[in-house]
Amino acid sequence: MTPAQVALLTLVAGFTSGFLPFVNVEAYLLGAAALFPESPLLLVVVPATVGQMAAKSLLYLGGRGLVGLPRRYCDRALAAGKHLAAGEGRSAGVVFSSALAGLPPFYLVSVAAGALRVSPRVFLLTGTAGRFLRFAAVFAGPRLLGLQS
Predict the structure, then answer these.
(1) Which of 52, 55, 79 is nearest to 67 (CA)?
(2) Secondary structure element (H or E) that encloses residue 81, with its range
(3) Are 6 and 36 in contact (CB under 8 A)?
């Protein structure tokens, strides 16, 4: 597979997993690390991050009411995102930790951030940073642990 094909496939996997919680981009990244061990980290991690954040941005816009989402998703997200309403500094921390660790689930935090009017800039910057670090750790993990040459 060419580097461009790897990047495009990774972008699609990141985007798809951003909408469908049962599609696991981390599993994809581990597979990519095994199948494409020579691929530079940025060739895989950047498209995964861009794809994921594109999907999460649509969820954010859904929370704002600019994109239609089922009401049950918005209700659940608001219940899970109570901490986001406590100020921009705290909002940034919740978005970053959710994007990095997945707790609370970033899917719900994305919708809640939109519904609670977290700044789009804060959402995008902190979400992208958290996702990038998460995906870099997953992709590089096998190499760092000596499981891959």
Answers:
(1) 55
(2) none
(3) yes
